[in-house]
Each structure stands twice: as C-alpha cells, then as structure tokens.
Amino acid sequence: MPLLEPKPEALRPDAVRSVSHDRIPEARAAGAPEALREDLSALLGPEKVLWKVSDLAKYASDASPYRFIPQIVVVPSDTNDISAILSYARDKGREIVFRAAGTSLNGQAQGEDILVDVRHHWTGIEVLDNGARARILPGTTVMRANATLARYGRILGPDPASAIACTVGGVVANNASGMTAGTTRNSYRTLASLTFVLPTGTIVDTAQPGADELLAQSEPELCQGLMELKRKIEADPELTARIRAKYEIKNTNGYRLDAFLDGATPVQILRGLMVGSEGTFGFISEVVFDTLPLDRRVSSALLFFPSLTDAAAAVPLFNTIGAIAVELMDGNTLRASVSVQGVPQDWAQLPHETAALLVEFRAPDELTQENHEQAAGELLQELNLVAPVTSITNTFTRDPKTISGYWKARKAFVTAVGGSRPPGTTLITEDFAVPPSLLAEACEALLRLQAEHGFQAAVAGHAAHGNLHFLLAFNAAKQPDVERYAAFMDDFCKLTVERFDGSLKAEHATGRNIAPFLELEWGPKATELMWRTKQIIDPAGVLAPRVVLDRDPHAHLRGLKTIPQVELVADPCIECGFCEPTCPSQDLTTTPRQRIVLRREMMRQPSNSPVENELLDSYGYDAVDTCAGDSTCKLACPVGIDTGAMMKDFRHQRHSPREERIAALTAEKFKALELTTRVAVAAAEKIGDQLLAGVTRITRKAVRPDLIPEWLPEIPGAAQKLPSTPRTGARAVYYPACVNRIFAGPDGHRATSLPQALVDVSARAGKPVWIPEDVTGTCCATIWHSKGYNEGNALMANRMVQAAWKWTDGGTLPLIVDASSCTLGIAHEVVPYLTEENKRLHQKMSIVDSIVWAADELLPELTILRKIRSAVLHPTCSMQHLNDVEHLNTVAQACADETVTPDDAGCCAFAGDRGMLHKELTGSATAKEAKEVNSREYDAYLSANRMCEIGMDRATGREYRSVILELDRATRP
User: Fold this and answer.
1) What is the mean pLDDT of the chain?
2) Distance CA 416, CA 334 (A)
3) Helix/strand/coil (H, E, C) string of 759-811?
C-alpha cells in the first residue's frame, strides 16, 4: 500500500442517520452472486460486467420515485452482446431490463435481476439525405443529435424537457414527446425505420428489403400471432373506434394498439409496437428519423394570469392562431424556479394563485414571423393579464437570451420544484392528458383533489396538447404518507378516466407507476389484448416484467425509495441525471448523480455495516479521485448542485493535519517552488520522457497516486522569460498565469511565447498592457482549491487579491489573465476564502480573461492580414462557467475562414494536474471529442488554457495552442 494512501474511514458519514427499510441488505455486501458474475464474465468478458455492491447501488436509482437493486449490471458493446445476454436469460429463466440515461420518471429503467446499460458504446449519428433523415444510435442524447442536425437546418420531432440527458433510444421506447411534439411530431409519427433485437435474439431491420420474409422464416409463430391479433381487432368496430379515439390526444399508457391498425405486415406492426414499449418487446439498436425543419425565427412571451384556470382558458386561443408551444406553469412552479440561475428573483413574491403561459411561435421567414406577432399582439389585448412583480413584461420578444431564460425556467420544472421539496421526501411526477377543450376544467378539478388529500402540488405542462404534469412530495419512509399518496392516486386515476376520458400517461410511458391502472383506462378487452401481445413477442417473459403490465393493484407502491439527507450542497438532488452527459468521468467510474446516490446509500445503512464499508472502499477512487472538479455538473443541473465542490470537500476531509501544513507551506514558499519547477522542467528536456515517466511511476506507487503526478511525453519544456513591459501608458495589467510562466507554448523556444504574443497584439491595437515585475510566487490558488487544501488555498487567494489590488492601482485598471481556469479562480473561486477586507477589494476589481480582452477590446482595433483555412476549437469548462465561449468563437472566426467546435466537445478533465494524476480520466473524457477532431484535418487546433491544450494534445495527437497566438500571427505585420 502506498505510504500516504488516504483512509476510507475519513469519508464515513458522521451525521445522525435513520436506518432505512429499503437499504441494501447486508447479505449483498459482496455484490453480485458469484455464479452469475462468472457466467456473464465468461459470456461477455469481465470488463463488461459490473458486480461490486457500489455498482449495484449506483444503478439502483434513477429519476423515478422507485428504487430496485439489480443482481448484476452488464455493459454490452454491440448487438452480438445483446443477443448473447437475451439467450442467457431465456436459458436460465432470468429477467432483463434495459437502461440508457435513467431519466425515466416511472421506474421503467430499473430491474431486479440483470440490468443492461445501453448508454455506453451506443452513441453516434449519421445524417442522411442532406438532413431530411438521420440514423441514430440509441445512447445518443436528443441534444447531441439536434446539434448535428442544426447544421442542416433540421431537428428531431420529439423535444422532451430532458433533452440534455435523455437518449434517443429511451425517447422511442417511451414515445416521449415534449413541448411541441404533440401527437403529430412524436416518435410514432416521425420514425422512418428502426432496427431491434427480439427476445429470441432475432435482429429485425424494418427498412431492409424482404424484412417480412426473413422474419417469417425465423419467427413464424410470432408473425402468425400478430396477424391473428390484427384480424381480431379489425373485426371489432367498437374496439377499433376506441383505439383511434384514445390516440387523438397524447397517450403513452399501455402498448400502441393502433400499430395493428396502421401496419399491414408483421414487421410494420412491430415497428409501431416497439415505440412506447419501454423495453418489454426488445432492444432498439438503431433508429432512422424523418427530421423536421428547424424554423429559426422565434417569437416568445411569458404571460402571467391571475389563476391557473384563467391561464388554461387562454390556451385554445393561442392554438387557434398557430402557436407551436403553449406551456403552463402554476405559482408553485414559478416561485420554485427562482433557484434556477437567470430567473428573476422577484418571482419568489408572486401570489400563490398566479400562473403563466410560455407561448412560442416559430417561422421560416420574416413575413410569417410578423404575421404571428401581429395575431398574438391582438390576442393579448383581450386577455386578463397581470403583472404583480416588476420583472414581468407580458410582451413578445425575439431576443434569444430572454427566450432561453424562459425555457430554462420551464424545463427546470421537475428539478427546481423537486429541489425545493421538504428534506427527506420522495418526488412523484405525474403526467396526464385531457382533451384541450377541457383543460381549464381539469385544472380546477386537480387543484380540488390535491387539497382534499393534503397536497400542495406544483403544476406545469404542455397545455397546447391538454397535457399536464404535477409533482407530489411525500416521505416514503412513513407509512401514513404512503397511504395518503395511494388514496390520492386512486381518486386521481378515476377522475382522469371517468370524468375526462383522459390518458393516465401522456408522454412519460406507463412504467411501474401506472401499470396497476391500465385496465381502468383501457377496459378489460383492450388490456387483455396487450397481455396477449406481450405473450406473443416475449413468451418467456424475459424483458422488463411488471413495467407495463402488472395485475398487482398495489404495484405502484412497491419499491418507493427513501431519500436520506446528505451533504447540504447535494441534498436537493432528485436524481434526474441531467448532470451526467457533461461529466468527464461518466464513462470511467461514476457520475455526479451516482456520487450522490452512493452517499445516500451510506446514509441508509447502519454505521459500520458491511455494505457501508464496501461502498467506502470504492468511493475514494470511483467518486473522489476521478472527479475532475470542473463543476460542469453545476451548469447542467437546473438547481445548480455542484457535486465537484462536494468532492473537493471530501478531498479536504481525507487530508491529515500534516498534509494540510505541507500544502500551506508550498503556498507560502510558492515563489521558490515556481522557480524550482521551471528549472526542473528545463532539465527534463535533456533527461528524456522515458526515464522521467519511469521514475514518477515508481514514486506514485510508493507515495500516493493521487498526490504525485506522472510525467507525460506531451508536457512541454520550460517557458521563455516574461517580456519586459513599461507601466506608463498601460491600459490594463497583464497577469501571466503560473502555468504559462513555467511551461512553454506548443513550439517551445522556436516561436513567440503566449505572454509575448498578448503583449504584442495589445500594443498593436493601441492598448498596451503591463506585466508586473513581482508576479512570480503568485497564483490563482486553483492548485490548492482543486485538491481541497483549504489552508493553502486561503493563503494564496488572499495573497493574489492583495497583489492584484496593488498592480491595478486599486482596481482602476482591469486585470487580464491568460488562462481561462485561472480567470475563473481569481474572479470567482477565491472569494469564499478571502478575508472580509480582501472581499471588499475584490469587488472593486475587474478580472478579464484574455479571450474577452481580445474579442471586445483588441479585435475592433486590429487589421487581419492573413487567415488560415480552418480551425477546430476546444472551449474549456472554465469558459463555460465564465460565459466566454462566444468570445473564443469571435477571435477564432477572425483568424480562420472556417471554425468548428466539435459536437462532442466537453471538459478534457486534465484539470490542472489531474490528467497527470489519473491519465485514464482524461483519456476517457476526451475519447469522443478526439474521434470527432481526428475525422478530418484542420490548419489549427485552438483553445485558451495551456493545461487543457496539453490534455487535448495527448488525446488527439495534434498540437493545440492558444487562440491568442493565432490572433498575433494573423495581425503581425
């Protein structure tokens, strides 16, 4: 064991805990059953089998209110693996559930036996017919697919609010729709073809010529059974009429029986049945969508009404004049959304009864947009609108930033309201639809029913389509609360079906939540047809039993998860998974959601239980060490949960007092350390990469892998001496980050250094900068902050601010920083560690990133003398936090005829030196982006942070450099 290996005990929760009834039992502390693990490892390879108890715990939770512990988790990489797993399950009498993003809200992505993770290895999009169609793998997120399609002026029909995280496969399997899809733009209506694997292992491509003949040869009984059901349905006019009527409004409850009416052959019927089947009929391995035009001219308004029923009554009026989206938000939703960054804070003072409609028109041209706006303006004059707080305008706008803010508030419905729920409560998200003409009446009835059962729910939804969502919070650990929820569900389902003839699930799919109420909505005849369909396609009952069909009237109460309280920063988490696609470690160890889920499982356990001990043994590396600490999870989370900050705090908790003292000493003596490091880097050029790599590997094993960086061949030589600059006449103070004072640029000593380039280009623009002579020994403090060394962090943070105050002449000059992570550190991350006096000084200073300085101040004064043909960009995570990505684009576009930001661009996870501590983290984080970058050649590879550039060098084999160097080259006489 390494000399300074941290003790897992340091991360044991010390809070008072209440042992939960749904905790993982002690008997499962060893993880998956050994025989099952050995079987599947032999079948698929051990690298595709997750068996530790920590693996089972992190997959046991998703965005739903349910929690089921799988026996084992497998991660297949192709359809051969899928067929092998299905064959194994049939032979052994086991059950399978497929899970992709885990954003489903009704428990359909959870299983109690073999859970199959189909998010990894299943991503990619191929654009067909110049964007008219797209072939997409099921693990691709909707947002990622739309990013590619946007270049062709196209978009997918389904647009769920969880597009940032939900996958295309999950969208099809649930027939999810969203804000604008309704009944005409959903998966069922816009799917051109799909490829799927049946429970027998048979692979069906519905677009393949002769697909029906091939299916008849391999699955004759299935084909015969489907055609018999088709004839039976078509021979019953009453049933046929009922099926057609049920899909006139949004409906995802049960199986798509209209597939039997729309399809003429077994393959065509299966193509329809697979949509919304929730993984109970097979695995969807590929889909081809007919895409839709991306109308870029958008006009939106957020309109406030005195009550929910007043808002609902206005919905048909906007439908009539062509609004593509009419979204409803009640007072609880509006008030809760103030936790979302950018939402006006005065919404917190909105009266309880207030409601709002987010109305949007989209148009392909200016004339159509003007016509929409004129019709909408006339309608506004007739409405009873209110403005109880000053931020409300009740007007239409074309401003993209304002519109984005409206949608951010709307899409945060589940997470923002869920994040403000009482601690320890479970969140239920209900989803139903009524004929749009009955929406106002349904709202009134829903509010009365909630009051009768003691719930004060939040309500929002796709009002244009009569589709409402509401949230209920209750404590699943308390039986009276569970009984109250059960009574409400009984009454709610009866109300929706018997009074409004509505859909109990409009777009979230049946799941475990509504399965017991399926027959109430559909009646015994149609329900039995669904059971028969399942029997024909999956006679062995291998796939997702109890997800769509369940005869247990209390099935929706089984497996409700408790939510133990954890660290304050993470406690609002509702486990939605929006954070996961942005996380650098998502394909290596754990995601932010899983880090929180594992923490909650520790809190469910008795202290020092075998399960807790196993979880702690894994948590150090899986959660703490391999967190890049980039906090992009905070940006993706609608309520801003910063799991990266929690991991940094855990790193601090693992430090011994001696380690903290040593770290503080390095901050105190940083000038000597900086000079020594620069000399060592210079010497390393002569020693050679191979020897240094060997020495550091040995040292890491002896001391601690998370403390000693490994030497990488991509690490550059020593930086050139900083240029000498006069203070007189300077328009800004230039602070070269310590990384640029220590390490050379991509061309080493052969080319202009970054500091020299920024000095030169600033002078060229008539805005000279001054580099203080005493910058050596100062730092943005990120070195200590990222590792959780609080004392060293505080020491350097205060030193930095005091020095900057002196350099900038009391804040009269801006401080320009040439590395985006250092800009973020000085501008924001140091603040909590400053003394009150230094906080006051900090508030008076202007900290500006070099790319912002270049885009806003230098470019307007410069003449571009030469351009390169193409450049690919790597926006860093710090740029995202600083909202500086557009500035990177602006500077790059001035220097290159074509600039490309990869659709898979994300945090490189080099994170200062974390890429040298855990190079596997950077390798995993950059794999998709690197593949995209290397799919073609570029003249330049540009970013604005030296360590990120080194990380991308390693990932791609290319040579990344600062965009400032390119700007200097483009403007140099």
Assistant:
1) 94
2) 9
3) HHHHHHCCCCEECCCCCCCCCCCHHHHCCCCHHHHHHHHHHHHHHHHHHCCCC
Whole-number Å distance between alpha carbons of 558 and 725? 71
CA 99, 105, 106, 111 torsion-angle sign: positive
Residue type, 678: R
Please report where in the chains the tokens 């297949």 appear, as a residue: 76
Mean local confidence (pLDDT), 470-488? 94
Give the integer Cα–Cα distance in Å for 55 and 47: 13
Q: How far from chain centre, in Å, is Cα 515?
A: 28
pLDDT of 746: 85
pLDDT of 829 reads 97
Identity at 835, one-letter amino acid code: T
Residue-wise pLDDT for 70-124, tens only, equals: 999 999 999 999 999 999 999 999 999 999 999 999 999 999 999 999 999 999 9
Lookup: tokens for 45: 């390879």
Phi-psi region of 276 (alpha: psi -120 to 50; beta: other; left: phi over 0): left
Q: Name the band, by pLDDT with cuts 50, 70 and 90, for residue 705.
A: low
Quick one: pLDDT at residue 3?
44
Q: Is the pLDDT of residue 4 over 60?
A: no
- pLDDT tens for 232-254 read 999 999 999 999 999 999 999 99
Gyration radius from the chain CA atoms: 29
Would you say residue 748 has pLDDT above 60? no
- Planar angle of CA 124, 130, 131, nearest 5 degrees: 55
pLDDT band at 891 (very low <50, low <70, confident <90, very high): very high
Buried b (16+ CB within 10 A) or exposed e, 404-430: ebbbbbbbbbbbbbbbbbeebbbbbbb
The vertex-881 CA angle with 969 and 826, nearest 5°, equals 80
Is-contact 327 358, C-beta < 8 A?
yes
Interval 432-447 mean pLDDT: 92
Q: What are the tokens at 348?
A: 């917190």
- Evaluate whether 31 touches 24 at the Cβ level (below 8 Å): no
Residue 400: burial class (beta carbons within 10 Å; 0-12, 13-18, 19+):
exposed
Q: What is the pLDDT of residue 5?
A: 60
What residues have CB less than 8 Å from 280, skipping those under 6 apart? 534, 538, 543, 544, 547, 548, 549
As given in the structure block, the two tokens for residue 623 are 């959660």
pLDDT tens across 810-863, in order?
A: 999 999 999 999 999 999 999 999 999 999 999 999 999 999 999 999 999 999
Chain position carrying tokens 């946007």: 150
Q: The dihedral of CA 96, 100, 101, 104: what is its sign?
A: negative
Question: What is the DSSP code (8-state) at residue 562?
Answer: P
Residue 335, class by beta-carbon neighbours within 10 Å (0-12 exposed, 13-18 middle, 19+ buried)?
Answer: buried
Helical residues (DSSP H) of 385-458, grouped into ranges: 400-411, 413-419, 439-452
The residue with tokens 């973020």 is 824
Residues 6+ apart with CB under 8 A from 801: 826, 830, 834, 838, 841, 842, 845
Got the DSSP string for 78-93? SHHHHHHHHHHHHHHT
Contacts 24+ apart (CB under 8 A), 719-722: 719/678, 719/743, 719/744, 719/745, 719/753, 720/744, 720/749, 720/753, 720/755, 720/756, 722/755, 722/771, 722/775
Q: Are strands 191-197 and 203-205 parallel, antiparallel or unpaired?
A: antiparallel
Q: Give residue-wise pLDDT tens across range 805-818.
A: 999 999 999 999 99
- CB contact set of 308 (below 8 Å; sequence gap of 6+): 328, 330, 331, 353, 355, 443, 444, 447, 459
Amino acid identity at 630: D
Concatenating the DSSP letter of every residue in 273-335 gives HHTT-TTSS-EEEEEEEEPEE---EEEEEEEEESSHHHHHHHHHHHHHTT-SEEEEEEHHHHH
Residue with tokens 């109250």: 484
pTM confidence score: 0.95
